[in-house]
Amino acid sequence: MNPVPVSLPFADRAEAGRRLAERVRPFAAADPLVLALPRGGVPVGAELARLLDTDFDVLIVRKIGLPGRPELGVGAVAEDGHVIFDDTALARMRLPRQALAATVEAERRELERRSRVYRGGRAMPRIAGRDVIVVDDGVATGGTARAALRMLRQEKPAQLVLAVPIASPEAVEALRPEADKLIVLGVPDNFRAVGEWYRDFSQLSDGHVTAILSALGGHRQQPETVRGVRIRAGGQAYLEGELTVPAAMRGAVVLVTGTGRDDPRWRAIAAVLRRSGYATLVLDLVTAAERAHRIDGVDASVLGDRLDAAVAWLRRSTDVAERAPGILGYGSAAPAALVTAARHPQDVGAVVAYGGRIDLAEPSLPQVGAPVLVLLEGRDSFIRELGEWARRRMGAETDLKVVSGAEQLLQETQEWRQVAMEAVDWFDRHLEKG
Question: Is residue 360 in some structural domain?
Fold first, then answer.
């Protein structure tokens, strides 16, 4: 978690949600779900879910305050009934857990009431296997968020993210081990209370929460349009692929591989791009017949011919690529992406070349005019030298980064997420200029 400079205070909770969206977007890939802690986290989470086009619901957790000082949290009750105490704080105050029994019972009753009001008879959404983003309007002590995260962890999410606009330094340190990713826009040293960092921090009622849930909760608002495609790529070669268009679209990216387009992590990278507003055309440049006959090592120029045809089809036969699209090429398709960028400078806006021997595109490199990001699989010095050599041959803006552990792309979760994040950042920087 690395806070970035942020203008404070926030105008209101909705603005805070909008400002969180771009930081959270790369982590909303695997069937994502935004869960807001009511009441204050609901307008933040609703705006975040709307912009990322994710499922949205509430997660009800009640703070346990000291008797007579309810604002001072020393624990929390989660929606599954589990109670978490801040034993360090209790020890400092020499207060046994038993002294809070009445408070715990009262908070349990309030939690049940809110569950009836907010959800009625509706069950909690499925957690297992999903990217779950927990949202609040801010964190002072971290007790409530900790209880929420520990409860969710037991349900085995694919990734557990805590995203808040503002937090105290102490809460950040306490919560860091509880989430796979902690996203905080501001961590001021002079933090005293969450409300001080909002110009409008109006109190919210149950009516506010239920109205937001009725408008947004439970389902995605903007379904994607998906269509299978078959593109003739010269002679008897046909490319099978899938074109997916988000409702809110700001560009297009062609994702090409030579090893099979159906791998779930490759599709997850495409999903991250779509959540960033890019239509995706996912293709395998190696034909079904070549795979059936185990034909390996198709020449980069031949794969470039096929990618040329795919880009031409996308631009001429659809309305999703009025601007020149980006290309993300993986493995043997990485040099093909550079071949196509060199041949058709008006039709390629930016390239991400991931893995593969991009030096195999040597004859085309001097003609590459689109900005190129080279992502290396691991730190092999020979492969890096080849990548740097290829960069020097290009006349375009280039960058080179090592994706740590990326040799394990098909096995490990965090590596493909990093590839997706780097690709989104590169296309955001360069396709918008098209």
Answer: yes
What are the counts of helices (DSSP H) followed by strands (DSSP E) for the chain? 13, 16
CB atoms within 10 A of CB 107: 21
Average pLDDT over residues 92-111: 83
Quick check: bond before 199 cis, omega within 30?
no
Where among 166, 190, 216 does a domain terminate? 216
Residues 18-33 have pLDDT tens digits of 999 989 988 888 789 9
Q: Which two tokens stand for residue 50?
A: 């709307």
User: Which residues span the domain enclosing 41?
Assistant: 13-216
The alpha carbon of residue 84 and the mean position of all alpha carbons in its chain are separated, in whole angstroms, by 29
DSSP 8-state assignment for residue 271: H
Give me 115's structure tokens: 């569950």
| Local confidence band at 222 (pLDDT 50, 70, 90 cut-offs) | low
Token duo for residue 284: 């395998």
* Domain CATH number, residue 203: 3.40.50.2020
Range scoring the smallest mean pLDDT among 88-102, 105-119, 268-282, 395-409:
395-409
Which residues, at least 6 apart from 142, have a Cβ–Cβ distance to it below 8 Å?
167, 168, 170, 171, 174, 175
- Same domain, yes or no, for 233 and 198? no
Contact between 249 and 279 (Cβ < 8 Å): yes
Same-domain check for residues 153 and 295: no
Same domain (yes/no): 208, 248: no
CA 413 to chain centre: 12
Q: 84-93, 289-298, 350-359 — which one is most confidently predicted on average?
A: 350-359
Strands (E), 7-61: 33-36, 55-58
